[in-house]
Amino acid sequence: MEKIAVVGAGQMGSGIAQVSAAMGFEVSLADTDLDRAASAKAKLASILSNQVSKGKITEADRETTLSRIRPVTLSEAARDADLVIEVVTESQDVKLRVFAEMDRQAREGAILASNTSSISITRLAAETRRPDQVVGLHFMNPVPLMKLVEVVFGVQTSKETLDRARGLAQRLGKTVITSRDQPGFVVNRILIPLLNEACFTLQEGVAPLADIDLAAKLGLNHPMGPFELADLIGLDTVLSIAEVLHRELGDDKYRPCTLLRNLVAAGWLGRKSRRGFYLYDDKGRAVRAALEQS
After folding, report:
1. What's the mean pLDDT in 57-83?
2. Which one of the listed residues 14, 188, 196, 240 is annotated catalytic?
3. Tens of pLDDT along 174-184?
4. Residue 76 catalytic?
5. Angle between helices 235-249 and 226-233 (to 10 degrees)
6. Does 138 qualify as catalytic in the annotation?
7. Which one of 127, 150, 196, 228 is the catalytic residue?
């Protein structure tokens, strides 16, 4: 594999494009229109400039990485790629449409991958004419910093596809784990119930928001509290995954907390909307708790 197409130029897609280009891959970065893809590359250029100023990379590294990323439209993203990875919103309907289009565009032999954090790889594969060449590549956020990638195999995924996907993730400098196609896979099967239970703990008035975050950091040795992490992930994404777990596993222990549903309904989605469990300034720094329950 030498050419990667990333479909979806948001935070995760841009991160995957950055890491892939830095490791020597030619990357096509696509979004709903060319302007959005170009804007994502411009934002990435700014991030890399900041890394240069901090001495983390050289200017030559920056220029080389950017030279390998080509903004494209959705209609041309997958044409000559060895691997096409979908990184769109965590909605099964949206992903199914994107997968069908990726399958039409991609050359014979190209692997189709999804960065989904909960949606069935088997179901996505069934939307294509190459189900044996479909796999999950679940990167963690933020992609350049987080070492783990979950490689998820569906019912139809061939051993060759699984091995190639695992090898790609390792070439990107990631530590790889594999998971069967079960709701939430490994990371979110563990994480989302924890975040959801933190919401119940807050909703029931067990402790103030900041104290719950502090308890996780100092009592469990977590680097971030559950509300800080939920805001980073995006509360809409947390809710979406919780709904998948509840629906697919059929166990009420996974039912999403009403408080989480209400924040999403209000449009308070975390850092990306500058308000979630915390309020954020224009640089993405938490200013104070947005909810003052005690």
Report:
1. 94
2. 188
3. 999 999 999 99
4. no
5. 100
6. yes
7. 150
| Sequence spans of domains, the chain | 3-180, 189-289
291: pLDDT strictly greater than 90: no
6 in Cβ contact with 27 (< 8 Å)? yes
Look up 101 and say whether it is catalytic.
no
- pLDDT tens-digit readout, 113-137: 999 999 999 999 999 999 999 999 9
Q: What average pLDDT score do residues 163-184 get?
A: 97
Which pLDDT score, from 0 to 100, does residue 202 have? 97
Among the listed residues 117, 118, 120, 240, the single catalytic one is 117
For domain 189-289, which CATH number applies: 1.10.1740.10, 3.30.420.10, 3.40.50.880, 1.10.1040.10?
1.10.1040.10
Cα(233)–Cα(224) distance, rounded to whole angstroms?
Answer: 12
pLDDT of residue 200: 98
- Half-sphere exposure of residue 28, counting CA atoms within 13 Å on the CB side? 23
The answer to whether residue 117 is catalytic is yes
Give the count of beta carbons closer than 10 Å to the beta carbon of residue 267.
11
* Per-residue confidence (pLDDT) for residue 294, from 0 to 100: 39
- Active-site choice (28, 101, 138, 196): 138
Structure tokens at 201: 């703990």
For domain 3-180, the CATH superfamily is NAD(P)-binding Rossmann-like Domain (3.40.50.720)
DSSP state of 82: S
